[in-house]
Every structure is written in structure tokens, then in C-alpha cells.
Design a protein that fits this description.
The chain has one domain: BirA Bifunctional Protein, domain 2. It has 8 helices and 4 strands, in the order H-H-H-E-E-E-H-H-H-E-H-H. The longest helix has 26 residues.
Length: 221
């Protein structure tokens, strides 16, 4: 079975990072479509079956817009950083109608920084409250799942959130504002013919957390 991605993907992203402007991108759009866009769409299409085995409620949507592929274009409207393009390739596999921040799976491909992830990043306060309540109400379920948490850059409150006990068994988890897990890949792994299996296996390992968070938010898994 051929690989989906090749070293040309990483070479393109390195060059894009050095030449992050519209003129350069348009001049090299054919390379983008050949080495990133088309392989990513095929990967998403083929991941639908392994994803269904993990959860029939998550979606691998191969549409090039509003699907699982995350746009390479940056939203610069409210940012001081006006670079127009992201220097990575990303895909999200969420509940239908939910965005990249829902508790599904995420694939990030970047030179020297490839990983799969699952969890909630910067959720809105009502969403975070539901998760905290679920942790308190379903301690026995949460106890083994919390071992998956490994986001080093997750933000955290200095004190327990209002309304939650200071001496709770999982008080440190209740302080978290981001909850998630990630599994890293090498660039070489991404370019092998076994990467679909590698990524699927990573998602299975992370699925207990995705399932718990989904349940906390009233989403099926």
C-alpha cells in the first residue's frame, strides 16, 4: 500500500514558513495541491472506516471546505500576526456540526511537530462546567481516564473553581481549563505506508478520554 504523504509535504511546509505571502503561495499552489491537499483528502476519505470502528458518531468528511480538512488560510482579522497561511497541515474528526474544539480527534502534520490529539482546548465556560460536574459525579469512570492527560501547555486555575470542593480527589483536574491527550509521530512515520494504521491506533488509545468528554457534553460516542 503506498503512503499518503511524502517528504515533499514537509519540504513544502518549510518553504511556506520562509515565504509566507500570497504571491509565493499562488506561484506554488500546484505543489500544495499535489503534496498536501489531495493526499489529505484521500487520507480523510479512507479514515472513515477505521473511525467508524472507534465511534460511529464521529465524522471523516472529505469535503475541501467545511469538512475534516482544516483550512490552511489563517484568520488575521483580529491578530497582529498577518501571515496569511498556516505552516502545518491539520485535520479534525468531530461530531457532525461541531468544530475542531469538540472532543473528537485531531491530526497535526508539521516538520518536527506531528501529533494526534483529543480533548477540549479553551472550551467555553458552560462547556467546562459540564466536564467538571461529570468528573465529580463519575469519579470511578474518570480515575483511569485521567492518566491519559498529557498537555503540558494546558492552562490551569490557581484555585479550585467556584462551587467545587478544595479537598476533592481530582481537584487538580478541576482546575484545568484545557483537558487533552496527544501522541507524537516522527516525520518518517507520517510518510510510511503504515501511517493510517499508526494514526488509527493512536485514536483508539485516546478514545476513552474522547468518550468521557463527549458524554459530559451530552454527545453520543
Amino acid at each position: 500500500m503506498p503512503s499518503y504523504f511524502t517528504p515533499e509535504l514537509f519540504r513544502f511546509l518549510v518553504r511556506l514558513k520562509r515565504n509566507n505571502d500570497r504571491d509565493w503561495f499562488l506561484a506554488h499552489r500546484a505543489d500544495y495541491e499535489t503534496h498536501l491537499l489531495k493526499p489529505a483528502i484521500q487520507f480523510i476519505t479512507d479514515f472513515a472506516s477505521p473511525l467508524y470502528d472507534i465511534s460511529p458518531y464521529l465524522v471523516a468528511d472529505p469535503r475541501m471546505t467545511r469538512g475534516s480538512l482544516v483550512r490552511i488560510y489563517r484568520d488575521t482579522r483580529f491578530s497582529s500576526d498577518k501571515r496569511p497561511y498556516k505552516s502545518h497541515l491539520a485535520m479534525k474528526f468531530s461530531h457532525r456540526g461541531k468544530d475542531v474544539h469538540s472532543p473528537g480527534f485531531y491530526l497535526h502534520i508539521e516538520p518536527g511537530g506531528c501529533f494526534a490529539a483529543s480533548g477540549l482546548w479553551h472550551p467555553e465556560p458552560p462547556t467546562l462546567l459540564k466536564v467538571r460536574n461529570a468528573i465529580v459525579e463519575r469519579c470511578d469512570q474518570w480515575r483511569p481516564i485521567r492518566k491519559l492527560l498529557n498537555w503540558d501547555d494546558a492552562t490551569k486555575l490557581c484555585r479550585p473553581p467556584r462551587g467545587f470542593p478544595c479537598d476533592h480527589e481530582f481537584v487538580d483536574d478541576l482546575k484545568l481549563r484545557d483537558l487533552g491527550t496527544a501522541i507524537e509521530f516522527t516525520d518518517t512515520q507520517v510518510c510510511t505506508s503504515k501511517f493510517m494504521t499508526t494514526f488509527s491506533t493512536a485514536c483508539k488509545k485516546m478514545s476513552p478520554l474522547a468518550k468521557f468528554l463527549s458524554g459530559a457534553l451530552g454527545l453520543p460516542f
